[in-house]
Amino acid sequence: MSARAMQLKEEGNRHFQAGDYVSAEALYSKALIADPGNPTLYTNRAMARLKMNLWDSVISDCNECLKFAPDSMKAHYYLSQAHLALEAYEEALKHALTAYEMCVKNKDKSLTAVTSQALRCKKERWADQDKRRRRETSSLEFEVVAMMERERDEALNGEGLLDSERQEVREEWDRKMEIMRGVFEKSRAAHEQRRKVPDWAIDDISFGFMHDPVITKTGKSYERASMLEHLLRSNTDPLTREPLRIEDLRPNIDLKQACDEFLEENGWAVDW
Amino acid sequence: MPPTAQFAAKRLAKELQKITNDLPPGITLVQADNLDEWFLDIQVLDNNPLYQDQTYRLKFKFGSSYPIEPPEVTFVKLADRPIPIHPHIYSNGIICLDLLGQQGWSPVQNVESVCMSLQSMLTGNTKDERPPGDEEFVKANRLRPKDIDFYYHDNNV
């Protein structure tokens, strides 16, 4: 990096730290003129733009960065945040998972933050689907009720009906409509009835829902990011205090799959 | 908020939610208005005459690295809450327990499990005495509990 670009970048960092994102963003832009194509300057500016909610600009900065540095974890992490803000859930999750893989590979300290980002993507994707499902169900119910009312009115308008027969028709339709509403009500209740989060899906260190469980030789599984935090302080098994290194951890693939499947249906469990 | 503090805040919020609904017998949550300091009451449930019909108040102080680092746990003295007599509990409420030390702590421990360990530490005790040198210790000690290098000379007590 040229001395000029370096100086502008550091000035930008200072403004960013102080919470002045607008000035920081301008300084990173100037630095990029002095040193075009510098990947770190792109991710720094993306970070400032994230704070300013300039989602589209974040995305273009990150994409530029990735052209020069395809291994930029930060670019994928910021892309995930911007796409999530734009409600592009699949894109957001895809980038979060890529950033996650990179963190694991490089033992990056951002693992905890990226883990939460991945879980947030899953949760919001579920919430969006859930909202849509509810909306569809309630508009369907509305339509069906209207149809039944039309049928009933037609039957009531039939020629030559006695008052007593009319009464019967009315009661018959009222009964049918009540049953129909009951069916919709039941399905709503089933959705709303939030099951308890199963203990097997909860990490005993963070108490969070597990995203990437790893297992130790005791047979107990933990969230990878929590284990990393713990092992940084003490190279011991949390249960037995026997020596344990990061290399000893194994992914618990079956548990991960069970957690993923549970989240598909129960995105709320991320914030249990 | 630094990332570790966020980690601590999340875990504490969930831990609180869990114990608000459900605590084992003899353990009561008294106050947890913020995420730095909680108070709980414990009772010894068997008929150990040393602790019968008494309730003890515990104070938990959490740092920003909880649960990677242990909380600071002490007994608090109030008019109706004495400091339990025990060879590992100083009369100022400081507890000498392996589990709460830098070496013995594990992040899978939690408020509930610490309370249960203290309950069983009292349950199993038959000695009506304070740690050796209690008076001098209480008078002289200016260290925070976590900075005291206890000598766990007898883990059977």
From TrEMBL, chain A:
<dbReference type="GO" id="GO:0043161">
    <property type="term" value="P:proteasome-mediated ubiquitin-dependent protein catabolic process"/>
</dbReference>
<keyword id="KW-0833">Ubl conjugation pathway</keyword>
<dbReference type="GO" id="GO:0061630">
    <property type="term" value="F:ubiquitin protein ligase activity"/>
</dbReference>
<dbReference type="GO" id="GO:0045862">
    <property type="term" value="P:positive regulation of proteolysis"/>
</dbReference>
<dbReference type="GO" id="GO:0005737">
    <property type="term" value="C:cytoplasm"/>
</dbReference>
<dbReference type="InterPro" id="IPR011990">
    <property type="entry name" value="TPR-like_helical_dom_sf"/>
</dbReference>
<feature type="domain" description="U-box">
    <location>
        <begin position="196"/>
        <end position="269"/>
    </location>
</feature>
<dbReference type="InterPro" id="IPR003613">
    <property type="entry name" value="Ubox_domain"/>
</dbReference>
<dbReference type="GO" id="GO:0071218">
    <property type="term" value="P:cellular response to misfolded protein"/>
</dbReference>
<dbReference type="GO" id="GO:0006515">
    <property type="term" value="P:protein quality control for misfolded or incompletely synthesized proteins"/>
</dbReference>
<dbReference type="InterPro" id="IPR013083">
    <property type="entry name" value="Znf_RING/FYVE/PHD"/>
</dbReference>
<dbReference type="Pfam" id="PF13432">
    <property type="entry name" value="TPR_16"/>
</dbReference>
<keyword id="KW-0413">Isomerase</keyword>
<keyword id="KW-0802">TPR repeat</keyword>
<feature type="repeat" description="TPR">
    <location>
        <begin position="5"/>
        <end position="38"/>
    </location>
</feature>
<dbReference type="GO" id="GO:0000209">
    <property type="term" value="P:protein polyubiquitination"/>
</dbReference>
<keyword id="KW-0697">Rotamase</keyword>
<dbReference type="InterPro" id="IPR019734">
    <property type="entry name" value="TPR_rpt"/>
</dbReference>
<dbReference type="GO" id="GO:0003755">
    <property type="term" value="F:peptidyl-prolyl cis-trans isomerase activity"/>
</dbReference>
<keyword id="KW-0677">Repeat</keyword>
<protein>
    <recommendedName>
        <fullName>U-box domain-containing protein</fullName>
    </recommendedName>
</protein>
<keyword id="KW-0808">Transferase</keyword>
Automatic annotation (TrEMBL), chain B:
<dbReference type="InterPro" id="IPR016135">
    <property type="entry name" value="UBQ-conjugating_enzyme/RWD"/>
</dbReference>
<feature type="domain" description="UBC core">
    <location>
        <begin position="7"/>
        <end position="157"/>
    </location>
</feature>
<dbReference type="InterPro" id="IPR000608">
    <property type="entry name" value="UBC"/>
</dbReference>
<dbReference type="Pfam" id="PF00179">
    <property type="entry name" value="UQ_con"/>
</dbReference>
<protein>
    <submittedName>
        <fullName>UBC-like protein</fullName>
    </submittedName>
</protein>
<keyword id="KW-0833">Ubl conjugation pathway</keyword>
<dbReference type="InterPro" id="IPR050113">
    <property type="entry name" value="Ub_conjugating_enzyme"/>
</dbReference>
